Amino acid sequence: MAGAGRVAVVTGAAAGIGRAIAERLAADGFRVAVLDVVDGAAEAAAKEIANAGGTAAGFRADVSDRAQVDAALAAVRAEFGPLSVVVANAAIALQQPFLEMTLDQWNHTLAVNLTGTFNAVHAAMPDLVAAGWGRVVLISSSSAQRGAPNMAHYAASKGGQLALTKALAMEFGRSGITVNTVAPSSIDTPSVQKKRDAGKMPSAEQMARFIPVGRTGTGADIAAAVAYLVADEASYITGQTISVNGGSFIG
Ligand SMILES: NC(=O)c1ccc[n+]([C@@H]2O[C@H](COP(=O)([O-])OP(=O)(O)OC[C@H]3O[C@@H](n4cnc5c(N)ncnc54)[C@H](O)[C@@H]3O)[C@@H](O)[C@H]2O)c1
After folding, report:
1. Is 216 close to ligand 1, i.e. is its CB under 6 Å away?
2. What is the DSSP letter of 247?
3. Distances from the Cα of 66 to the Cαs of 62, 98, 111, 118, 185, in angstroms?
4. Cα 60 vs. chain centroid, distance in angstroms?
5. Known catalytic residue: 154?
6. Are the beta carbons of 213 and 247 closer than 8 angstroms?
7. For residues 13-36, average pLDDT
8. What is the pLDDT of residues 41-75, one digit of tens each?
């Protein structure tokens, strides 16, 4: 199996896209560490993955807090051994017009989405370097590629991930480590549904009219791209952004 017992950590994996990635990597034979900030949620998700036949364990950590990330990864190593794969997925996506955005809101978004990515990758990277093999996948967003009104902080944080991907790909290319980004768009997750219910987003049917393949995406669509990028056979792909968006925003 692709995972061959390797250890993968997925941040923000209790729900939504991260959860789908954790499920897919577990199905592919990885031992999966589920990290999430919500009390008990990572453990509950890991339990369900294990009940479905995978190997998974849950750890609570706020990715914006380096001490919590370090503690969680130490616990992962104690449970499963050294890490081979890091998927930096945890993020927040607040909506605020730019002129109403406070410095605190800006800093908080950057702290979770971009510094949180740094924390997870930086804390795990020594294991990958020591093994001479590793896969890093960042989950960015189409917002970084085309902009997003009322989400300047989010778009900027996601753009930072694209640049980080390229820098790390160059720095770690000779260490057997690839670094890539998946940029989703219009993926149905519980948090998206909440925004729909609050009238802050159009329905899936309305959105589908503007997506070339005629439907919104699923967590499994993103997980499939991640599963490919973390496989041995993807060793010649690094520094890239794979857009998983049903054909939206081509170019
Ligand atoms: N859903 C979409 O349409 C879409 C589109 C583009 C990009 N994305 C990106 O995909 C990723 C997942 O999105 P989603 O829709 O599944 O989001 P979501 O809100 O449904 O899930 C995010 C998960 O991350 C966790 N999380 C939040 N802050 C955290 C923190 N500080 N530390 C640890 N965990 C934290 C949450 O508890 C939650 O379980 C994000 O990076 C998001 O920017 C999503």
Report:
1. no
2. T
3. 8, 28, 10, 9, 28
4. 16
5. yes
6. yes
7. 98
8. 999 999 999 999 999 999 999 999 999 999 999 99
Q: What are the pLDDT digits (tens) for 242-251?
A: 999 999 976 5
From 134-138, 168-172, 177-181, 192-196, the region with the lowest mean pLDDT: 192-196
Protein residue closest via CA to atom 44 of ligand 1: 184
Q: Is 222 in the pocket of ligand 1 (CB under 6 A)?
A: no
**Concatenated DSSP letters of 177-239:** EEEEEEEE-SB--HHHHHHHHTTSS--HHHHHTTSTTSS-B-HHHHHHHHHHHTSGGGTT--S
DSSP 21-56: HHHHHHHTT-EEEEEESSTTHHHHHHHHHHHTT-EE
Q: Which domains does the chain have, with CATH numbers?
A: 7-186+218-244 (3.40.50.720)
**Ligand 1, from 35, 36, 109: best to mutate by most atoms within 8 Å of Cβ?**
36
The residue-averaged pLDDT of 3-17 equals 96
Q: Measure the CA–CA gap between 109 and 115, rounded to whole angstroms.
A: 9
Helix (H, G, I), strand (E, B) or coil at 80: helix
Give the separation between CA 17 and CA 116, rounded to whole angstroms. 17
